[in-house]
Amino acid sequence: MPTSLAANANVALYASMIVYTLAMLAFTWHVAARAPKVAESKVAAESSVAERALVGAGAGSGAPVSAERRSPTTYAAGPGFEESLRSRQRGSIALMLTYLATALLVASVLMRGIAVSRPPWGNMFEFATAASAAVGVAYSALARRNRWEWLGVFIVTPILLVLGLSLAVLYTEAGELMPALKSYWLGIHVSVAFLAVAFFTLAFAVGLLYLVRVRREEKPPARPGFMESLPSAAALERTAYSLNMVGFILWTFTLIAGAIWAKQAWGAYWQWDPKEVWTFVIWTVYAAYMHGRATAGVDPRKSMYIALAGYAAVIINFTLVNLVSTFVGMHNYSGMS
């Protein structure tokens, strides 16, 4: 029974990758339909100029101006953009595929856990798949309500990359835990850690888009593209901050829970193990971001660069700290020989 469940978990994992690939293509299809057309943009600009002229003429002559001319157009994304029906339909298809792929990935993680009768994140392969599932669930939960179809390709593509690398490089057969990991803290400490990583991943993608968007707002391109269809730079920055704040709170709990577990396992809250150090480095960088973001007069772009550095530290913590012998300490739980 455990063997068949582990095999079925692998089948579900491969199936989720196939569907995620279809979702990635569908999101790309959606992006192509979402980009504003040049002709439409010119017409909108000319209409806006004519409208301002009419409003000015009406105000100067005392003639009444109709409410239709006075009221600005409301758009779903950036100014001057209204999403087409075709774009919405493609975005909906991409989201449905993402929901299905995420469900398959969650099923794979659950079957792996049942097969080994423990939380399914006892090695790097299991952590990578569980963290990818957490990213998929977080995006799926937030995308429909916030109309984040525009973000999908930037989330699904990294998920696919991580799953592919997990199978090609990190794969470990289902088996028993190392003695040091046999604790209820594994289910608490590590699960909160990959939830934090999920929110940091969403924030990283939004943060990159914010930096591009703010440049495009400062120097509008001659030909509008996908970036002009996104929410304003200010809205993207607020979204990234909110996601980073949730991730930071979860990471704070991760740091504290890890110290408590270390006390139980090794007799000390802190032993300068590389994993402990990098966990604290990540917390410190994101704390610096939060401080910069809350400080008046600090350019939001500078704060965002700090947040991106924090995510780079997250990647280093998961990869180099676990795989490079120079960093390996008491947390050598990659599961790789």
UniProtKB/TrEMBL annotation:
Q: Which organism is it from?
A: Terrabacter terrigena
Going by the entry's taxonomy, the superkingdom of the source organism is recorded as Bacteria
Task: Give TM regions.
Answer: 12-32, 93-115, 121-143, 150-172, 184-212, 241-262, 277-292, 304-328
Q: Which NCBIfam families match?
A: cytochr_II_ccsB
Q: Residues in domain Cytochrome c assembly protein? A: 123-325
Keywords associated with the record:
Cytochrome c-type biogenesis, Membrane, Transmembrane, Transmembrane helix
Give the protein name, as stated in the record: C-type cytochrome biogenesis protein CcsB
Pfam families xref list: Cytochrom_C_asm
Q: How does it sit in the membrane?
A: Multi-pass membrane protein
Task: Kindly give the InterPro entries that the UniProt entry links to this protein.
Answer: Cyt_c_assembly, Cyt_c_biogenesis_CcsA, Cyt_c_biogenesis_CcsA/CcmC
Record gene name: ccsB
